[in-house]
Write a structure and sequence with these properties.
161 residues, alpha+beta, Lipocalin
């Protein structure tokens, strides 16, 4: 009977350790949750400027790879003067302060910052892209605003068959 007692004790110990452990942030069983990034999920219209020229893009954001990354896809709208397409993945290591997400890129000719800011009252995102010259001066590379492609009222309206 000692073998059965040992088996029961090991089974009970294994069962109890799983429920007390905090959820994993990454790996096969992890789920990355972020209230700020959740506000980015959906379809958007981006309007703004890049190096002083107009920018107009369709943007869509979805959770991907078992909810480990936010995928943001940018594509110039039909008829845009400049073709553009980008695919961005945001993971849990991204720095943020509660309403902004800052991306910092270090290039040989100087740093580049891209800051996503969310305004809860208007439900809009602002993207500010800045670069620092070799002389140490920060300049604006782009300013852009994301507005929902489908307004909130239409998203929450009941669907008719």
């Amino acid at each position: 009977m000692p073998n059965l007692t040992a088996l029961i004790w090991v089974t009970a110990a294994l069962a109890s350790t799983g429920s007390d452990a905090p959820p994993a942030l990454d790996g096969e069983h992890g789920t990355f949750t972020d209230e700020l990034l959740d506000k980015l999920v959906g379809d958007w219209r981006l309007k703004g400027t890049v190096l002083g020229k107009p920018a107009d893009n369709d943007v869509s954001a979805t959770w991907e790879l078992k909810h480990q990354f936010m995928q943001v896809r940018f594509k110039a709208v039909a008829g845009a003067t400049e073709p553009y397409e980008a695919l961005v993945f945001i993971g849990y290591g991204t720095r943020k302060d509660g309403r902004t997400i800052a991306f910092v890129f270090e290039y040989p000719d100087g740093p580049f910052h891209n800051t996503f800011s969310f305004d809860a009252s208007s439900e809009r995102w602002t993207f500010l892209l800045e670069q620092k010259s070799s002389a140490g001066k920060w300049t604006t590379f782009a300013t852009q605003t994301l507005t929902r492609a489908v307004p909130k009222a239409a998203r929450s309206a009941p669907q008719t068959p």
